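Subject: Sanity check before I submit

Could someone independently write out the structure tokens for this chain? I want to compare against mine line by line before I put it in a report. The sequence has 440 residues.
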Amino acid sequence: MCRTDGGQEPTGTGDEERTDAAFTALLEDSAEELYDAAPCGYLSTLMDGTIAKINTTLLDWLGLEREAVVGRQRFVDLLSVGGKLYHETHFAPLLRMQGELRGIALEMKTAGGGRLPVLVSSVVKHGSGGDPLLIRTTVFDAADRRAYEEELLRRREEAEQARAQAEKARRQAEADRERLADALAVLQKSLVPDTLPAVPGLEAAACYHTAAPDRLGGDFYDLFPIDGKRWAFFLGDVCGKGPEAASLTSLTRYTLRAAALHDPEPAAALTTLNAVLHERYAASGDPRYCTCIFGTIEPDPGTGEATVRLASGGHPPALVLRTDGRADFLPTPGGLLVGVLPTAPTGTVQTTLAPGETILLYTDGLTEARTGPRRDDLYGEEALHAFAAGHAPAAPQEVITALTGLLESLGDGLDDDTALLALGVPATHPRTRPATNHPR
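---
Independent answer below. Compare away.
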């Protein structure tokens, strides 16, 4: 580029050279600057621990002046009480033996009385003759690491406390469930007889199988005398579960007992029960009902037989196990759920039990049990009929024992409680199973 006066324009090369020289000088930091302003602390001590050199970084961390430290204090003087103890008992002896230690966690004191968590690495330097001359120590600020460790510890303690509280709550819940199960068991027993009475000329057996120990069922049964010749019995299932079902069960049992003493005809007893339940619950807008089979049995000492009259309110039919190996249902047509309508027609059926024959009453917890590999089939009345036929003839206790085993084999397929009641006439001769009978 030419000037108007004919001279040459300055090229600026001198300024660029000066800039390059200044930049190069900045790159050539001195070792002393690197040592003094390092991101970690450095100090050198004599073999007795007296501080001979310390960098500005560590002085700033501790809030100390160089003149008060160099030649006046030892490394151990910079440590907390716990750090001093560890230094004397572990750090210094190991350093003398090994000549080098790395990453030792200690605490150093600050001028303000605080504590600075640090990681310390030290190495012993020897002279040309092999004698130890000084110790060089590097100090890293571990405050963030300590905070992290303390946070982890706090979180761990919180987790331990949470686990302890959860375990305490679990144990409390188990204890509450056990108390509830005990209370429910006592209440459940109050809804059925503790034992069945001895009936002259008859045998009787019963069973109540609970599907869930923490759930109060609504199945019921009873056997009691009416007069000097006849005995009344009933078995049924109320709607619902829990305390309300228990209340309904209690009302049903006592109503049937009172009704039988007034009029022992089975249909009359169920008619009375229907009127009581409908009046008690339907008027309140919360109708409740039950299924029930009610009967009377009258042994005949002369013939050794027993006459049975049955009426049913929407209940599964009774089964009779005959001496010839048959099992017969006793349908009671016309019976409706008890308590649903103001009046409920009830049909009556009558049969005679010969010596060695048994009548079985059951609730639908048995026939509605889920079976099959996927628990998607119901056990059903046909299977029960085949099972009964496979055990006929059998005494009441034999029938109940066999059915109890069946219930236990169904396992979690039982969703509902099951009540069983069997009445029979004692066999006059040892039972022989017919050749055509189903195998057990």
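---
OP: Matches mine. For the report I'm noting this point. The chain is about 40% helix and 25% strand.
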